[in-house]
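Ticket #4471: structure output looks truncated?

Reporter: J.K.
Steps to reproduce: submitted the chain below (283 residues) through the standard prediction queue, then opened the result file.
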Amino acid sequence: MIHELARRRNLKIRKVPLWNEKFNKEELVRRYNGMSKRIFDKGYRQRPISDFDKTFPSFMNCIKKGLDPNVAAPEEDRKFISVGVDLSSQKRPGNVIFTTAVKSNNKRVPLDIRIGNWSSPETAKQIAEVDSLYKPHVIVVENNSYQGALIEWIQSLPTDYDFWMKVVPYVTGRQKWSDDTGLPSLESEFNADAWIIALSDTDTHFSDCDCAWCRFISDMINYPQQIGEGDSTMGMWFSREGIRLYMSNGGIQESIHIPENINEFDELFDIIKMDPDDFTNSI
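Returned output as attached by the reporter:
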């Protein structure tokens, strides 16, 4: 009825905020100026996002319900494993650890997704556990002003340095939106059926499920309007970048230097602080 009345051109419509104390004109204008028009329309005008507006419209086609990730990518068929770590920031609290396996047929299968608002030492323990479970070839960590956090993590684990030998930095910049290597390139891979998103135990997942896998799916569908802690989309992208940058000819590049003992750790930390281009030129 309301929509029918709204279509009548001779009907005078008064636009009155439903909650004027909180969402008056000045506040709405402030919020409009602080976000994209698409986000504002969805959140404050109740205009749904069309498939045309979605960042990853082909993502849902990659979901295989009722398929366990360990069945989709059995251990003997994992030729490369990459972990992406998206760290918390002032804009978005929460950390994401995203583990992806590459099969012999080059299909990419997420194996493990962890999301939590952990302290730096706890995040380090989570990464150590992932390293123990999946033995990844590379761990790609966002490197925007987090050197201090890395030092804190290292000091908190004086006897558990092994996984740090696999850590490489990734500085996020304009390449994030590159059609060839940025987030848009993920959509190209989804469209090419290069990913298998295995979602097991679908009977336990409901619309209000808050597990890491459901939050990941929600993030991908709604990107960039995710709700909640962590950014699993970025975690997935860092994991994919580990595959793109450090896997070649079916295996890890020999150019990645793995220190043989803890005495080489100081040199390793200098590498961790480098930009990706400097890192590549140094090896």
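Triage note (M.O.): checked the attachment and the full token line is present. Residues 2-44 form one domain.
Status: closed, working as intended.
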